[in-house]
Specification:
single chain; alpha/beta; Aspartate Aminotransferase, domain 2; Aspartate Aminotransferase, domain 1; 2 domains; seven-stranded mixed β-sheet; PyrdxlP-dep_Trfase_major; PyrdxlP-dep_Trfase_small; pyridoxal phosphate binding; Cystathionine beta-lyase; lyase
Length: about 400
């Protein structure tokens, strides 16, 4: 962990991304930090070994490579400290384990990433922690759901798959009045377009697998905390023995250097495709917060500095029994869009979204929801590909 260099905040985003983290002079002038593979770390004497009075003590507690990435993320987040974990899901679950105990209560946004819901409904339940799900649009009204034993409020904005916005500042203010920790999955926006800790969030979570890595070949999560919550997060991280690998950390560090440029391209192309989809009769709705037609657009415009490359749309269908056949026909006709999970890489992806887990935010009634990750391809080619999908769906 290093202190935040406020002077870098004055530079543009791409300048900051190019110079995040340690100085090359810390590594003999090499512009990229070395990849340090480590498990055992030697001590100069028994006293130092006993007290662990040196910077590195064991591979799970960090190396120069992982520290370089943590320093960079801290600069982006404005956080007191960051830990690395092997995946985005782990980045969500470690803070839950850090701040929740048997008998506690947690509030989880109903538009949450499904694996997070599964963890809450299985692991947390088994540990004696109760969970309630809340409407993402609740804002300060979340006060009505707070219980005496509420210890954590989890947010995600925009929401997974259907992209509902949340008033993060209002929710954080209420949670803090009642002594609850606020966590946020901010993978969609990255700290380039939204900085959770500036809006009252205590712990900011990212699947660095997505935009920071950017090439669909790395699994890594980052968890960044403010000064109040950092010690407990760090202690839990060490106790669980969870750590990100130096190779993956190096790849993500390299990806950060171009993330601003890539995000700008993802944003531009996604908005172009989303706007085009809005004009089609075979599209019932486009679910993209940066579109003025979207219900949460005002919140997005107030709080966010940009949008990324992932959004959804509702394919028009005249009867529920045609939802899946039309969705599958659409997807099977695509050639440039790959059929795969995850997102944030260079390539475009499409998936038929399942929303059967929702308690409050029910699935749209007009047709199946298809999620698109708009990659770095030319928009004209992507539109042609989607045209083929629409033609195939119309034939069903």
């Amino acid at each position: 962990m290093t202190s935040h260099d406020n002077s870098k905040d004055e530079a543009g985003v791409n300048t900051r991304l190019a110079h995040l983290g340690p100085s090359p002079h810390d590594f003999h002038g090499f512009v990229n930090p070395p990849v340090v593979h480590a498990s055992t770390v030697l001590f100069p004497n028994a006293r130092t070994m006993e007290t662990r009075d040196q910077k590195y003590t064991y591979g799970t507690r960090g190396t120069p490579t992982t520290d370089a990435l943590c320093d960079a993320i801290n600069e982006l987040e404005g956080s007191a400290g960051t830990v690395l974990v092997p995946s985005g899901l782990t980045a969500v679950t470690v803070p839950f384990l850090a701040f929740l105990s048997a008998g506690d209560h947690a509030l989880i946004v109903d538009s949450v990433y499904f694996p997070t819901r599964h963890f809450c409904d299985t692991m947390l339940k088994r540990l004696g922690i109760s969970v309630d799900y809340y409407d993402p649009a609740i804002g300060a009204g979340i006060e009505t759901l707070i219980k005496p034993n509420t210890r954590l409020v989890h947010t995600e904005a925009p929401g997974s798959n259907t992209f509902e916005m949340q008033d993060i500042a209002a929710i954080s203010a209420v949670a803090h009045r009642h002594g609850a920790v606020v966590t946020m999955d901010n993978t969609w926006a990255t700290p380039v377009y939204f900085k959770p800790l500036d809006f009252g969030v205590d712990v900011s979570i990212h699947a660095a697998t997505k935009y920071p890595a950017g090439h669909s070949d790395v699994l890594l999560g980052t968890v960044s905390a403010n000064a109040a919550t950092w010690p407990q997060l760090l202690e839990t991280h060490g106790t669980l023995g969870i750590c990100g690998s130096p190779d993956d950390s190096y790849q993500v560090m390299r990806g950060l250097r171009t993330m601003g440029v890539r995000l700008a391209r993802h944003q531009e192309s996604a908005l172009a495709v989303a706007s085009w989809l809005e004009g089609r009769e075979d599209v019932a709705r486009v679910l993209h917060p940066a579109l003025p037609s979207f219900p949460g657009h005002d919140l997005w415009k107030r709080d966010f500095k940009g949008s990324s490359g992932i959004f959804s749309f509702v394919l028009a269908a005249d009867s529920p029994e045609k939802f899946k056949p039309k969705a599958h026909a659409f997807l099977d006709a695509l050639r440039y869009f790959g059929l795969g999970y995850s997102w944030g890489g260079y390539e475009s992806l499409a998936v038929h979204v399942g929303l059967g887990d929702r308690r409050i935010c029910k699935a749209p009634a007009e047709g199946p929801v298809l999620r698109l990750q708009i990659g770095l391809e030319d928009v004209a080619d992507l539109k042609k590909d989607l045209d083929a999908g629409f033609a195939a769906a119309a034939a069903v």
